[in-house]
């Protein structure tokens, strides 16, 4: 299914109130401020003009020319009628409006679906927060804008999606797209999984779901997507109480969590437990497609190295047994106080040369699949120096980095990120990142 008109549109119409603070106004502002290069048409029966970020746009009383997508934020009872009017004028509509099946008004939602089918219009929503096509500079939502990258976020919950976008900005994650699909009256998670599986700008797909209406179709779409690229899933409504809450939230059927869990494992999707893990997994897969299970830890501090060791082993990974050749080279090139066993402890005064040399030596060891590099810099060695060592090191294996903590490593992390290297702020989170990469290799 081609959904390019939603995520790479050349024209958009926004329906609703354009007074400041109104949802339609905020979406319009996001579209304009986000740098959308296509045609933007605000529509309201009252007409007039609206000023957005220094631009004055004419408000049309009704849409009288074709657009690729319509964004609708008007009272729910008027939506089916508007959809009928849009026949022949648009291919798709994003219905932000709430007041449908999620509040028990199933008949109105059925009327909306019938109107859309008769008009030949595909619907996202209703009761949703909108969509982003980040590489198309299209921010058709009232949520915070994000920087371009490889993560497509599909969220059944608009509020979760908004929080996730904001957290993604803080975590340094780049997005290809965002879609909040709400009640899924027409297009749903299965359609978006298939679309993003084939989208050239998407490297990894993240999915927040509470429940699905067509389990078999979902499983087929999930299998297809996971065969093409990593799919990370955060499932809500696992408990009985959570399932009831999910049903009242979006009108979906939450179903048995054990069934979902079995499906995720069967098709090779990666399930995470919380938002923090979702972004850690996304960061890992933005950098690497997969990794093996044998890990070498390089650190300048013993404690974090031990924590990483414990976490890796608890996750089913192996602490790599370094070859005699590697140990011999390390022993000859490191101060005698350093430990050349894995974890390799470079001690506190490790500088650029020591880090780079050890990364390159260990990377050549056939017993090592991935490297976990930890840095807790003393005040006399700038974290940027160690970051530069990681960047400059010649290594063709996955390197996961844990620079900690706070102000001491801020500049180092910034330098790493400017070279596409994501930081994981604790040894445990770094270890989990490697575990997710290893799961992908098993699939």
What does this structure look like?
- Helix 7 runs parallel beside helix 9, helix 10 crosses helix 16 and helix 13 (352-363) packs parallel to helix 14.
- The protein has 3 domains: 1-128, 3-Layer(aba) Sandwich (Rossmann fold), CATH 3.40.50.720; 143-287, Rossmann fold (3-Layer(aba) Sandwich); 290-442, Succinyl-CoA synthetase domains (Rossmann fold).
- It has 16 helices and 19 strands.
- By secondary structure, the protein is α/β, with parallel strands linked by helices.
- The longest helix has 16 residues, at 427-442.
- The chain is elongated and about 80 Å long.
- The two termini are 25 Å apart.
- It has helices spanning 4-7, 23-33, 79-85, 106-119, 158-171, 189-198, 215-228, 240-250, 257-267, 275-287, 302-314, 324-333, 352-363, 383-392, 410-418, 427-442, and strands spanning 11-16, 39-43, 49-52, 55-58, 67-73, 90-95, 122-124, 130-133, 138-141, 148-155, 175-180, 204-209, 231-235, 270-272, 294-299, 318-319, 344-345, 370-375, 399-403.
- The model is unreliable at 246-254 (pLDDT under 50).
- The strands form 4 sheets. Strands 9-8-11-10-12-13-14 form a 7-stranded mixed β-sheet, with helices on both faces.
Q: Report the mean per-residue pLDDT as an integer.
A: 93
Shape: elongated
The CATH topology annotation of the largest domain reads as: Rossmann fold
Largest β sheet strand count, sense and barrel closure: 7 strands, mixed
CATH architecture assignment of the largest domain: 3-Layer(aba) Sandwich
Stretches with pLDDT under 50, minimum 5 residues:
246-254
* Rg for CA atoms: 25 Å
């Amino acid at each position: 299914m081609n959904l390019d008109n939603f995520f790479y549109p050349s024209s958009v119409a926004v329906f609703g109130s354009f007074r400041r603070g109104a949802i339609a106004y905020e979406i319009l502002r996001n579209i304009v401020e986000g740098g959308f290069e296509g045609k933007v048409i605000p529509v309201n029966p009252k007409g007039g003009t609206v000023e957005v970020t220094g631009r004055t746009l004419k408000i049309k009383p009704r849409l009288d020319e074709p657009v690729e997508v319509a964004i609708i934020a008007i009272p729910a009872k008027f939506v089916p009628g508007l959809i009928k009017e849009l026949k022949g004028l648009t291919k798709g509509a994003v219905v932000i409006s709430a007041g449908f099946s999620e509040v028990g008004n199933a008949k109105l939602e059925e009327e909306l679906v019938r109107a859309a089918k008769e008009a030949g219009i595909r619907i996202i929503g209703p009761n949703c927060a909108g969509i982003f096509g980040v590489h198309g500079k299209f921010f058709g939502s009232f949520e915070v804008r994000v920087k371009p990258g490889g993560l497509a976020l599909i969220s059944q919950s608009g509020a979760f999606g908004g929080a996730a976008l904001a957290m993604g900005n803080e975590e340094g994650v780049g997005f290809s797209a965002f879609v909040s699909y709400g009640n899924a009256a027409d297009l749903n998670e299965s359609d978006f999984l298939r679309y993003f599986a084939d989208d050239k700008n998407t490297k990894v797909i993240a999915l927040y779901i509470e429940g699905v209406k067509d389990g078999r179709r979902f499983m087929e779409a999930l299998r297809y997507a996971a065969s093409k690229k990593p799919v990370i899933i955060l499932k809500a409504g696992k408990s009985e109480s959570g399932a009831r809450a999910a049903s009242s939230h979006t009108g979906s059927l939450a179903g048995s969590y054990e069934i979902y869990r079995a499906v995720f494992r069967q098709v090779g999707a990666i399930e995470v437990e919380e938002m923090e893990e979702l972004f850690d997994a996304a960061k890992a897969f933005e950098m690497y497609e997969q990794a093996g299970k044998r890990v070498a830890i390089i650190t300048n501090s013993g404690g974090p190295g031990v924590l990483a060791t414990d976490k890796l082993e608890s996750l089913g990974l192996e602490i790599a047994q370094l070859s005699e050749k590697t140990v011999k080279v390390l022993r000859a090139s490191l101060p005698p106080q350093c430990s050349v066993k894995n974890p390799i402890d470079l001690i506190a005064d490790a500088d650029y040369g020591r880090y780079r040399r050890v990364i390159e030596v260990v990377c050549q060891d056939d017993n090592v699949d991935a490297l976990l590099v930890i840095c807790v810099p003393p005040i006399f060695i700038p974290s940027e120096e160690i970051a530069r060592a990681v960047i400059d090191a010649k290594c063709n294996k996955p390197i996961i980095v844990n620079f900690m903590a706070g102000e001491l490593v801020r500049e180092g992390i910034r330098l790493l990120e400017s070279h596409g290297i994501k930081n994981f702020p604790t040894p445990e989170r770094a270890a989990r990142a490697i575990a997710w990469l290893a799961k992908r290799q098993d699939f």
